[in-house]
Write a structure and sequence with these properties.
With about 50 residues, the chain is an all-alpha fold. About 80% of the residues lie in helices and about 0% in strands. The longest helix has 29 residues. This is Secreted protein.
Length: about 50
């Protein structure tokens, strides 16, 4: 029985860690202004195809 408890706790920790990473990335993504997003997209389109 103890084996299942350890496995369950590890799974729960993995789910929590994944949620933290997703929340951090979402917060970083939402911090851009529309002008910054537009500028970055234009830079990405204008860069040479070899670097993509």
């Amino acid at each position: 029985m103890r084996w299942w408890k350890v496995l369950g706790a590890a799974g729960l920790a993995g789910v929590a860690a994944t949620g933290v990473v997703i929340a951090r990335n979402e917060r970083r993504r939402r911090s851009y202004t529309p002008d910054e997003i537009r500028r970055r997209l234009h830079e990405r389109v204008n860069e040479p195809p070899e670097s993509r």
